[in-house]
Task: inverse folding
């Protein structure tokens, strides 16, 4: 039987790269994103039969409907990848940035919960499955000018850990993937050096390897895992002095 994979944020970047990789392996895909034209363009390049859903992950009812449709047509997914996310520079002192904070948290955190929710009980009943959350190394420590994004990814890491423990022994694996810098539209706007950058297609290959293994937590590429461990150990006074001068993402509202 073909593997069934449900992916949010599938219209570009990591989501599209994962769709291409899984489709090449013969998987049946459920592709979720806000931009229908981009989804249809991606669909036209993929071998096999797949379903597309034009849904914002902030739309809980829309996600439930997409999940129900996919499960009815193809069966409960073997893998659900909560990949949809937005990033933008933010400053707490700016009153207008409250809207940006709200959008980032609603998409990156609540959108992940809403993506998983329809599938947890059916996967538990079946006794198998993978719930994959795309976090970020930016969630390890708070980065200047990225308060919303860092906070959202820190929340995602903690949420996925809670879910992993909740589902321990059920046969359902919860996989946390914390990418470093990946070549996507999200990183294209960054105006600072991005070490160990990976092309999206190579990142997708490494992500799937971790998903197949049922890894509880994986930093990709591994070099950023070393950086993440060092950041955890860095005393606050040193961290503050070093990162106060770090490059910052442009401010604005997430698209």
Result:
């Amino acid at each position: 039987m073909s593997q069934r994979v449900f992916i949010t944020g599938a219209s570009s970047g990591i989501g599209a790269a994962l769709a291409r990789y899984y489709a090449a392996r013969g998987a049946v895909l459920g592709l979720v994103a806000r931009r229908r034209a981009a989804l249809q363009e991606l669909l036209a390049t993929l071998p096999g039969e797949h379903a597309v859903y034009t849904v914002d992950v902030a739309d809980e009812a829309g996600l439930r409907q997409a999940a129900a449709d996919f499960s009815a047509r193809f069966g409960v997914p073997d893998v659900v990848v909560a990949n949809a996310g937005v990033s933008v520079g933010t400053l707490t002192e700016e009153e207008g940035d409250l809207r940006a904070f709200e959008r980032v948290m609603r998409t990156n955190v609540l959108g992940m919960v809403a993506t998983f929710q329809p599938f947890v009980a059916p996967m538990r009943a079946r006794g198998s499955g993978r719930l994959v959350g795309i976090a970020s190394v930016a969630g390890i420590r708070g980065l200047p000018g990225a308060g919303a994004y860092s906070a959202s990814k820190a929340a995602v890491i903690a949420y996925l850990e809670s879910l992993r423990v909740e589902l321990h022994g059920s046969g359902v694996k919860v996989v946390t993937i914390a990418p470093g810098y990946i070549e996507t539209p999200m990183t294209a706007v960054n105006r600072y050096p991005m070490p160990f950058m990976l092309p999206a297609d190579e990142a997708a290959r490494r992500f799937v390897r971790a998903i197949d293994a049922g890894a509880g937590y994986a930093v990709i590429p591994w070099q950023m895992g070393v950086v993440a461990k060092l950041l955890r150990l860095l005393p606050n006074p040193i961290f503050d002095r070093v990162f106060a001068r770090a490059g910052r993402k442009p401010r604005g509202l997430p698209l």
User: Anything to note?
Assistant: The chain has a mean pLDDT of 91. DSSP finds nine helices and nine strands in the chain. The CA atoms of residues 181 and 197 lie 5 Å apart.
